[in-house]
């Protein structure tokens, strides 16, 4: 079902790219005839036979509950891969393997840290790669938390509790400990609210925070990394973390409108004025 949906979305995108104004209710197999007049140099849109078989598998599964065989699934996998590989290059002039979700991450700074992480991963340094992913994620959240004047940043949820000084030398050790615990607790709740308010899974963030080394930039501009000694990292850890950061960046981008508003406003001032409609 997912392969079929992906192929249909690709066909709709291809039609738009080729400036074919198609109705919204085009049948899946009709795309080949509808797109053909706009194909480069009169070429045929590839993959019609394989996609036809996939369409039939979907139809019998969806309408009759007939589960596809293992052999059918394997053939469909080959057909879908071949379709995307050939059609992408033919229509968009790109190799399918070169397409990366990083390309559509809208925050340039986050994108740069993702690419830096990829460079480290290609060199086999998964620890540093994960560290840059976590650092990029932190910069992503910070983008929306400190945008504009912090007093009106609605995603701040108050001042930075984590930086508050805890009273000391009061002569009341129990009170000092209680205040310190309270500040720590509220700081963690604040951080969680900031992340959740962007539509990002806090549980996934906690997982990233647990597995990735931490990178910080010191006052001299050097980056310092720290992590648990003896910790091993797998390629599956990196693949998961990379997908999480990319999807978080795309999800958080919905707050760009807030960034724009806050960057042009110093303090909310709403002068009182009469309105023509009377209240109840």
UniProtKB/TrEMBL annotation:
Organism superkingdom: Bacteria
Name this protein carries in UniProt: Uncharacterized protein
Organism: Frankia torreyi
Lineage: Bacteria, Bacillati, Actinomycetota, Actinomycetes, Frankiales
